[in-house]
């Protein structure tokens, strides 16, 4: 099997980190299949996630590991980790409590592009918690 | 409202492309909520997607626009485009025929990490078409 076929069809997990050492990770609700957020992992964050069974990401802005929920309490319990054909992206199947997005919504994807518009969004969700309380601001 | 609050809470669609001019786009089945694939868009691909109502990505390997299905026939009809809090990621809610992944599966995410393993994958799906026929190889 060629190297690329091995990546696509093999059973060895060989996550492909990008030039910055990161891989995209999508947190998806294991029960509802709602996509909650998209973040990034370096190899250490991925190893920690596997070890702990809870999502640990790498914060690009803060340039350090970020255990999801360390400040807000909204941890993500990881049930499964899926990878795609070329192994450069991950899905975390997670269970969560309410309020995963720091803005106050269950999912970070709380807006959609309006029909027949190129630049106007509409809200498709309601806030589920008060981020000012959760983050103590 | 501050600039970052405007991005998070405003109704103006201001997709944030990265240093390479790309934004991550997740194609999610509008009916089943299964995540089908993850790809990238430049501003032209996004504009084309909005214009046509069909997914058009930017291929990083081929460095050109890639109308999903142009070769395989597996087009993605786009019903909604969602963006996340900081507008650096998109979800395309799509409807599709069978077989979205070039390897032959409905979703690119056809393998998961085995329980209690750090490096062994197991298959969680069956192929739904023969890619050798679809791509004429």
Structural write-up:
The first copy, chain A, is α+β, with helices and mostly antiparallel strands. Chain A has a domain at 3-97: Roll (Ubiquitin-like (UB roll)). Helices cover 15% and strands 32% of the residues of chain A. Chain A has three helices and eight strands; from the N terminus they run αββαββββββα. The mean pLDDT of chain A is 94. At the A-B interface, β1, β2, β5, β7 and β8 of A face β1, β2, β5, β7 and β8 of B. β7 of chain A pairs antiparallel with β5 (76-83) of chain B.
Distance between the termini of chain A: 55 Å
Kindly provide the name of the CATH class of the domain at 3-97 in chain A: Alpha Beta
Content-based structural category of chain A: alpha+beta
Helix and strand element order of chain A = HEEHEEEEEEH
Read across the widest sheet of chain A, the strand sequence of neighbours is: 2-1-6-5
> How big a fraction of the residues of chain A is strand?
25-35%
Average predicted local confidence, pLDDT of chain A = 94
Percent of residues in helices of chain A comes to 10-25%
From the alpha-carbon coordinates, what is the Rg of chain A to the nearest angstrom?
A: 17 Å
In the predicted model, the low-confidence regions of chain A spanning at least 5 consecutive residues are none
Assembly classification: homodimer
The CATH topology label of the domain at 3-97 in chain A is Ubiquitin-like (UB roll)
Q: Report the major sheet of chain A.
A: 4 strands, mixed
> Helical stretch count of chain A?
3
Could you give the count of β-strands of chain A? 8
What overall geometry of chain A do the principal axes of the alpha carbons give? globular
Largest interface: A-B, 44 and 44 residues
Q: Architecture of the domain at 3-97 in chain A in CATH?
A: Roll
């Amino acid at each position: 099997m060629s190297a690329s076929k091995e990546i696509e069809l093999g059973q060895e997990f060989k996550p492909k980190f990008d030039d910055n050492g990161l891989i995209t990770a999508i947190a998806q609700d294991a029960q509802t299949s709602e996509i909650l957020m998209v973040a990034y992992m370096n190899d250490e964050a991925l190893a920690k996630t596997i070890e702990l069974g809870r999502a640990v990401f790498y914060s690009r802005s803060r340039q350090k590991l970020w255990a999801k929920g360390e400040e807000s309490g909204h941890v993500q319990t990881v049930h499964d980790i899926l990878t795609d054909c070329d192994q450069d992206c991950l899905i975390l199947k997670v269970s969560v409590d309410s309020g995963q997005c720091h803005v106050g919504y269950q999912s970070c994807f709380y807006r959609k592009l309006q029909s027949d518009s190129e630049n106007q969004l509409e809200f498709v969700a309601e806030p589920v918690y008060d981020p000012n309380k959760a983050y103590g601001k």
